[in-house]
Amino acid sequence: MTSTKPFLRALAGETIIPPPFWLMRQAGRYLPEYRATRTQAGSFLDLCYNPELAVEVTLQPLRRFGFDAAILFSDILVVPDGLGQHVAFKEGEGPVLAPIRSARDVDGLDLSGLHQRMAPVYATVSGLSKAIPATTALIGFAGAPWTVATYMIEGSGSKDFANAKRLMWSEPETFARLMNLLIEATGQYLIQQIDAGAEAIQIFDTWAGALPETEFRRWVIEPARQLVERIHCERPGVPVIGFPRGAGILYEAYVTETKVDGVSLDSSVPLDWAARVLQPKCTVQGNLDPILLVAGDEALDAGIDRVLKALAKGPFIFNLGHGIIPPTPPENVARLAERIKAFKG
Ligand code: 1CP
């Protein structure tokens, strides 16, 4: 059965003009109505676990810009929270976690409370599936095991991932145990999102590009391959988009070996190479530099046109190469939406 939703048709391999579009971090601090709801919610995690308000902030950018997909409003770090690790979001500083640095710390994590803790997230998904427009698709998501593990081990964002890499190389069994727990937890979590109404899944591996080739194959490609296989096998027909940010030429091995339905490209991926090498294998998504949405004007228009010209001839979903940043003027997002909708091929 062919979907009536352009985003899902593109993921099934159709070429659609104008292409469907949505933007990573389309809900967030660049929108005044998000900041207002955020204040009402309390902490950022309170917002993630409040289905009524999480539905509201997910819908806010759809009302303004008419995106073809809604993405569940939550965060990749609810999974560590659901495994019993202490997670907090400090105002202006980002996430802070009680770091996992030893075999004993890994022993302290527990899968058994995950779904109870994630119940409000599943409620948000099911609320959204009733609230979004009929032609809009609903994306569920999770962080990929490697990216989530970096936050769990470092205890915060990091520049060089020194603790995570040290654990990976110096205590490979402990690291593997953590990663296997995350693969299982993430698989279960995504299946539950699908059962609550998610129609497609995106796996965010934001820090994939920090790993050398051997470790990239072991801890980026292999976990994604297992997650895609599990979703395709247990919930056939639900497409998966992978985002191995910074993978460089390893994007090709990632696509071939994981069997993702779509791949999200960061802004450094050359457009002609993506059209020639990746697009014959799966739907591509991306990859406008998010700072062009801050710059605006002709630079923004030219950037949009370059991406459309290179990728809209095949299966394609327009997006950014990474998330919208807070200083982005909403008018520039409106400008982008209008320009894509006016594209005639
Ligand atoms: O105060 C606030 O409002 C917090 C800002 C914020 C928001 C709006 C955070 C904290 N997370 C989010 C929402 C979010 N995070 C979504 C919602 C859906 C949408 O896209 O609209 C999604 C998909 C994420 C995923 C996420 N969180 C990723 C992967 C994608 C990416 O952007 O790279 C990562 C790495 C995170 C961790 C995270 N959460 C928040 C911050 C500030 C960070 C980054 C910390 C760092 O720099 O390391």
Could you outline the blueprint of secondary structure elements for this entry?
Blueprint: H1 6-11, H2 32-41, H3 44-48, H4 51-65, E1 69-71, H5 78-82, E2 87-90, E3 94-97, H6 103-107, H7 114-131, E4 137-143, H8 145-154, H9 162-170, H10 172-196, E5 200-205, H11 213-234, E6 240-244, H12 250-258, E7 262-264, H13 271-278, E8 283-288, H14 292-295, H15 297-311, E9 316-320, H16 330-341
Parallel strand pairs: 1-4, 4-5, 5-6, 6-7, 7-8, 8-9
Antiparallel strand pairs: 2-3
Helix pairs in contact: 2-4, 4-7, 7-10, 8-9, 8-10, 9-10, 10-11, 11-12, 13-15, 15-16
Bound molecules: coproporphyrinogen I.
Description of the molecule:
Its main location: cytoplasm. The protein is α/β, with parallel strands linked by helices and 345 residues long. Helix content is 52%, strand content 12%. The protein has one domain: TIM Barrel (Alpha-Beta Barrel), CATH 3.20.20.210. Strands 1-4-5-6-7-8-9 form a 7-stranded parallel β-sheet. Strands 2-3 form a two-stranded antiparallel sheet. The two termini are 26 Å apart. The mean pLDDT is 98. Bound molecules: coproporphyrinogen I. Coproporphyrinogen I (1CP) binds next to strand 3 and strand 4.
What is the structure about, briefly put?
This protein is 52% helix and 12% strand.
Instruction: Identify the CATH architecture.
Output: Alpha-Beta Barrel
Largest sheet: 7 strands, parallel
Question: What fraction of residues sit in β-strands?
Answer: 5-15%
CATH class: Alpha Beta
| Rg on CA atoms, Å | 19 Å
* Major beta sheet, strand line-up: 1-4-5-6-7-8-9
